[in-house]
Every structure is written in C-alpha cells, then in structure tokens.
Amino acid sequence: MMSGTELARAIVDQAAHRAADYEKHTGRKPCLATVIVGDDPASVTYVRMKRNRCHRAGLDSRLVSLPEETTTEQLVAAITELSNDPEVHGILLQHPVPKHVDERAAFEAIAPDKDVDGVTMHSFAQMSFGEAGFTSCTPGGIMRLLDAYDVDPRGKHAVVIGRSPILGKPVAMLLLARDATVTICHSKTENLPDVVRTADIVVAAVGKPEFVRGDWIKPGAVVIDAGYNEGNVGDVAFDEAVGKASLITPVPGGVGPTTIAVLLEQTVDSAQRQLAAL
After folding, report:
1. Which end of the chain has the lower number of beta carbons within 10 A, N or C?
2. Which domains, ranges and CATH numbers included, belong to the chain?
C-alpha cells in the first residue's frame, strides 16, 4: 500500500520549518491566496482543508470568495490584483470554476512566479523542458510517492489514463523526464484494457469511479489512483486491482495528501525566491 499520509507529513514538516525561518528573517509568513468562485460543496470543503493545512504549517492563508455569477473578466481582475500584491506569494484558483467562466484565461492571469499550483502554460513549459519552476501539484505528489517507495521509472512503460492539462499531461512529462516510456490514453483510445495490460506503471486520472478494472492490471504493476469520486472512490476498482499490483495507492490517503503537501512546499519556495529577487 502506497500511503501518502506519512510522506505528506514529512513534506509539510519541512515546509513548516522553512516557513518559520522565513518569518524569523522577514517578520511575515509565506502567504497562499485561494480564489473560489461559487459555493460548490466539494470545492468549499477542499478550500477549507487547504487553509487549515496552511495554518498548521505556519503559512498565512487569504481567501477570495466570489459569487457564482462572477464573469471571466471579474475573475481575471481579482487574480491579477493578487498577482500584483507583494504580500501574496502563491495563488491557487480552486477548480472547477462555473461553466460560463473561461478557466484557462483565469489560470493564465496567475503570475508565473506565484503559480504554486503549477497550472499555467508557463509552468507546464518549464516543467516539460526541465527548467526551474513550479510543478503541477498532483503530478508532483505522484512523483514523490514513486520516489518514497523506490519505484524508478527509468526504462519502464508508464500508461497515463487521462490527458487533462493539470494532471494527465504534466504527469506524463514528469515520467518522460525520468526516462520512462510513456503512453497517454484517453476516451478515444482503442482497446484501452489491452494497452493498460502492458504497463509497468499505471496512473489513473480519468475522473470516473472504478473505471480501471482489476483484470486490466499486469501482475506486479505499480498502480497510482489519482481519482477521487463521490463516496471516497477512486478511478481504479481497488478490491480487484490490489491482488494484482505490487504497489497501489488507496483512496483516500494516497495521492491526495501529497498534493496538498506539494502545494504548501511550493508556496514556501515561492516566498523564498521572491525574497531572493529583491
């Protein structure tokens, strides 16, 4: 079982130590600003959880809560104001946003040096080219899990199910950078179960409960379930896959904790980089 809980605790503890050192030298804490549009219950819960984790790690947390009817222009303006605020070190736009909002335009309003969630095109390019920058948090957490459990992707066949710009595509780039041979699958992939059966590492990021069945898993494969669906169910049929996989992440308690831990770590990174640039 690949538990993310203890790994996340270690990441957050180190981030908290660095945040305390930053506060000692500057008189202020690293600050993460979270923007939420509307009152979707799941999003409200996620935001509350992230803010609580911030406080426990010694970070400031600023909440910008906007009504459901907020336009793209209004959201972009709010994010631009945070991007220009020297007291803010990281910006997180809680997604998904309402359907009438252009989410990509909102993401791109985040200043690259404050994109601690790794959602902008600038961050994706830096990550893909191996340049210093911010990693998309869930993919970053997945790579930390692989390292913690001594899974070396080099030479392995990794199959990523999902091609979202904040999960599927970036985790594929990170695996490729670690010398894995990567196949990205999606809703149009033909013979998907047969493709997955060739994988040494499976990353399920499709957003459908128990989509990946146990008989899709090659014996001994490493299975990373990056999905989270209603009822605490992942994208992998866990009870079927657990007997086939050599390592597997549970839902909850697998990828999720590491995602938040990387977010906090990168907020401290951002604060220290901005201080060094002064």
Report:
1. C
2. 26-111 (3.40.50.10860), 137-256 (3.40.50.720)
